[in-house]
From TrEMBL:
This is Cytochrome B. Its cofactor is heme b. It is a multi-pass membrane protein. Residues 8-184 form the Cytochrome b561 bacterial/Ni-hydrogenase domain. The chain crosses the membrane at residues 12-31, 51-72, 93-113, 155-174. GO terms for cellular component: plasma membrane.
Length: 189
Protein backbone atom coordinates (compact mmCIF):
# COMPACT_ATOMS: atom_id res chain seq x y z
CA UNK A 1 0.00 0.00 0.00
CA UNK A 2 1.12 3.55 -0.70
CA UNK A 3 2.22 5.06 2.64
CA UNK A 4 0.74 8.48 1.78
CA UNK A 5 -2.75 7.10 1.15
CA UNK A 6 -5.38 6.11 3.71
CA UNK A 7 -5.75 2.42 4.57
CA UNK A 8 -9.55 2.43 4.31
CA UNK A 9 -12.32 3.88 2.19
CA UNK A 10 -14.51 6.49 3.85
CA UNK A 11 -17.78 5.37 5.44
CA UNK A 12 -20.02 6.74 2.67
CA UNK A 13 -18.00 5.01 -0.07
CA UNK A 14 -18.21 1.74 1.87
CA UNK A 15 -21.97 2.17 2.36
CA UNK A 16 -22.52 2.89 -1.34
CA UNK A 17 -20.44 -0.17 -2.28
CA UNK A 18 -22.26 -2.63 -0.02
CA UNK A 19 -25.76 -1.24 -0.67
CA UNK A 20 -25.10 -1.55 -4.40
CA UNK A 21 -23.75 -5.09 -4.02
CA UNK A 22 -26.79 -6.17 -2.02
CA UNK A 23 -29.26 -4.49 -4.39
CA UNK A 24 -27.61 -6.04 -7.47
CA UNK A 25 -27.54 -9.51 -5.92
CA UNK A 26 -31.18 -9.45 -4.80
CA UNK A 27 -32.33 -7.94 -8.13
CA UNK A 28 -30.49 -10.72 -9.96
CA UNK A 29 -32.05 -13.41 -7.80
CA UNK A 30 -35.52 -11.94 -8.33
CA UNK A 31 -34.94 -11.34 -12.04
CA UNK A 32 -38.09 -12.55 -13.75
CA UNK A 33 -37.26 -15.19 -16.31
CA UNK A 34 -39.53 -15.01 -19.33
CA UNK A 35 -40.83 -11.59 -18.31
CA UNK A 36 -41.40 -10.38 -21.87
CA UNK A 37 -43.29 -13.54 -22.84
CA UNK A 38 -45.46 -13.28 -19.72
CA UNK A 39 -46.23 -9.64 -20.48
CA UNK A 40 -47.25 -10.53 -24.04
CA UNK A 41 -49.59 -13.14 -22.54
CA UNK A 42 -51.32 -10.41 -20.52
CA UNK A 43 -49.53 -10.56 -17.16
CA UNK A 44 -49.80 -7.35 -15.17
CA UNK A 45 -46.33 -6.96 -13.60
CA UNK A 46 -47.84 -5.19 -10.59
CA UNK A 47 -49.32 -8.55 -9.57
CA UNK A 48 -45.86 -10.13 -9.24
CA UNK A 49 -43.77 -9.10 -6.24
CA UNK A 50 -40.59 -10.46 -7.83
CA UNK A 51 -41.03 -8.17 -10.84
CA UNK A 52 -41.90 -5.12 -8.72
CA UNK A 53 -38.88 -5.72 -6.45
CA UNK A 54 -36.58 -6.45 -9.40
CA UNK A 55 -37.53 -3.21 -11.15
CA UNK A 56 -37.43 -1.16 -7.93
CA UNK A 57 -33.98 -2.51 -7.07
CA UNK A 58 -32.83 -1.76 -10.61
CA UNK A 59 -33.84 1.87 -10.18
CA UNK A 60 -32.11 1.89 -6.79
CA UNK A 61 -28.89 0.53 -8.35
CA UNK A 62 -28.98 3.26 -10.99
CA UNK A 63 -29.55 6.02 -8.40
CA UNK A 64 -26.85 4.63 -6.10
CA UNK A 65 -24.42 4.47 -9.01
CA UNK A 66 -25.11 8.08 -9.98
CA UNK A 67 -24.68 9.17 -6.34
CA UNK A 68 -21.43 7.20 -6.12
CA UNK A 69 -20.13 8.94 -9.23
CA UNK A 70 -20.95 12.34 -7.72
CA UNK A 71 -19.32 11.28 -4.43
CA UNK A 72 -16.12 10.35 -6.30
CA UNK A 73 -15.59 14.05 -6.96
CA UNK A 74 -15.87 14.98 -3.27
CA UNK A 75 -14.81 12.00 -1.20
CA UNK A 76 -11.57 11.82 0.75
CA UNK A 77 -8.62 10.16 -0.93
CA UNK A 78 -9.08 6.45 -1.66
CA UNK A 79 -6.56 3.85 -0.55
CA UNK A 80 -3.86 3.05 -3.11
CA UNK A 81 -2.67 -0.54 -3.09
CA UNK A 82 -1.01 -1.23 -6.37
CA UNK A 83 1.34 0.13 -8.89
CA UNK A 84 1.68 -0.45 -12.57
CA UNK A 85 1.67 -4.24 -12.64
CA UNK A 86 -0.50 -6.21 -15.02
CA UNK A 87 -2.66 -7.30 -12.07
CA UNK A 88 -3.27 -3.68 -11.08
CA UNK A 89 -4.19 -2.79 -14.64
CA UNK A 90 -6.56 -5.76 -14.75
CA UNK A 91 -8.15 -4.59 -11.47
CA UNK A 92 -8.71 -1.12 -12.95
CA UNK A 93 -10.25 -2.66 -16.05
CA UNK A 94 -12.53 -4.80 -13.84
CA UNK A 95 -13.68 -1.74 -11.90
CA UNK A 96 -14.34 0.16 -15.12
CA UNK A 97 -16.40 -2.74 -16.47
CA UNK A 98 -18.40 -2.96 -13.23
CA UNK A 99 -19.09 0.80 -13.24
CA UNK A 100 -20.17 0.67 -16.89
CA UNK A 101 -22.50 -2.27 -16.28
CA UNK A 102 -24.04 -0.59 -13.21
CA UNK A 103 -25.01 2.32 -15.47
CA UNK A 104 -25.89 0.45 -18.66
CA UNK A 105 -27.89 -2.39 -17.11
CA UNK A 106 -30.75 -0.21 -15.78
CA UNK A 107 -30.80 1.70 -19.08
CA UNK A 108 -31.14 -1.58 -20.98
CA UNK A 109 -34.09 -2.46 -18.74
CA UNK A 110 -35.84 0.80 -19.61
CA UNK A 111 -35.12 0.18 -23.29
CA UNK A 112 -36.58 -3.33 -22.96
CA UNK A 113 -39.72 -2.11 -21.22
CA UNK A 114 -40.23 0.96 -23.40
CA UNK A 115 -39.57 -0.72 -26.73
CA UNK A 116 -42.00 -3.55 -25.89
CA UNK A 117 -44.66 -1.23 -24.45
CA UNK A 118 -44.42 -2.78 -20.96
CA UNK A 119 -44.93 -0.70 -17.82
CA UNK A 120 -42.26 0.06 -15.24
CA UNK A 121 -43.71 -1.05 -11.92
CA UNK A 122 -42.16 0.04 -8.64
CA UNK A 123 -42.75 -0.40 -4.94
CA UNK A 124 -45.44 1.80 -3.45
CA UNK A 125 -47.68 1.34 -6.47
CA UNK A 126 -45.62 3.67 -8.66
CA UNK A 127 -46.06 2.83 -12.30
CA UNK A 128 -45.03 4.26 -15.65
CA UNK A 129 -47.36 2.69 -18.21
CA UNK A 130 -46.07 4.29 -21.38
CA UNK A 131 -42.58 5.36 -22.41
CA UNK A 132 -43.18 6.83 -25.88
CA UNK A 133 -39.80 8.60 -25.88
CA UNK A 134 -38.26 5.13 -25.86
CA UNK A 135 -40.86 3.29 -27.95
CA UNK A 136 -40.64 5.88 -30.74
CA UNK A 137 -36.87 6.25 -30.69
CA UNK A 138 -34.62 4.68 -33.34
CA UNK A 139 -32.62 2.88 -30.65
CA UNK A 140 -35.70 0.88 -29.57
CA UNK A 141 -35.54 -1.22 -32.74
CA UNK A 142 -31.78 -1.84 -32.72
CA UNK A 143 -31.87 -4.95 -30.52
CA UNK A 144 -34.00 -7.25 -28.43
CA UNK A 145 -33.34 -5.18 -25.31
CA UNK A 146 -34.77 -7.83 -23.01
CA UNK A 147 -32.12 -10.26 -24.28
CA UNK A 148 -29.44 -7.58 -23.96
CA UNK A 149 -30.57 -6.83 -20.41
CA UNK A 150 -30.40 -10.52 -19.45
CA UNK A 151 -26.93 -10.92 -20.96
CA UNK A 152 -25.67 -7.76 -19.21
CA UNK A 153 -27.16 -8.95 -15.91
CA UNK A 154 -25.40 -12.29 -16.20
CA UNK A 155 -22.16 -10.52 -17.09
CA UNK A 156 -22.45 -8.20 -14.09
CA UNK A 157 -22.97 -11.11 -11.70
CA UNK A 158 -20.00 -13.02 -13.13
CA UNK A 159 -17.73 -9.98 -12.91
CA UNK A 160 -18.95 -9.16 -9.40
CA UNK A 161 -18.21 -12.74 -8.40
CA UNK A 162 -14.68 -12.48 -9.82
CA UNK A 163 -14.32 -9.15 -8.02
CA UNK A 164 -15.29 -10.84 -4.73
CA UNK A 165 -12.91 -13.75 -5.34
CA UNK A 166 -10.08 -11.28 -6.04
CA UNK A 167 -10.86 -9.40 -2.80
CA UNK A 168 -10.75 -12.67 -0.84
CA UNK A 169 -7.47 -13.61 -2.57
CA UNK A 170 -6.01 -10.25 -1.51
CA UNK A 171 -7.19 -10.84 2.05
CA UNK A 172 -6.21 -14.48 2.52
CA UNK A 173 -3.14 -14.86 0.30
CA UNK A 174 -1.63 -11.40 -0.20
CA UNK A 175 -2.75 -9.99 3.17
CA UNK A 176 -2.47 -6.50 1.72
CA UNK A 177 -5.55 -4.84 3.23
CA UNK A 178 -7.57 -4.51 0.02
CA UNK A 179 -10.65 -6.28 1.40
CA UNK A 180 -10.23 -4.70 4.85
CA UNK A 181 -10.31 -1.24 3.25
CA UNK A 182 -13.94 -1.81 2.25
CA UNK A 183 -15.12 -3.49 5.48
CA UNK A 184 -16.24 -1.96 8.78
CA UNK A 185 -13.33 -1.80 11.26
CA UNK A 186 -14.71 -4.58 13.45
CA UNK A 187 -14.74 -7.00 10.47
CA UNK A 188 -11.46 -5.90 8.92
CA UNK A 189 -9.14 -8.34 10.70
Amino acid sequence: MNLSSPSRYDALSRAFHWLTAIAVTVAFILGPGGFGRQMHEGLDPATRNDIVWHESLGVLVFVLTLLRLVWLAFRPAAPQFGGDSAVDKLAKLMHLALWALLLILPMSALLALGSEGHPLTLLGGLRVDQMPWIANSPIAKLADWGEVHGLLGDTLIWLAGLHAVAAIYHHVILKDGVLASMLPKRWAR
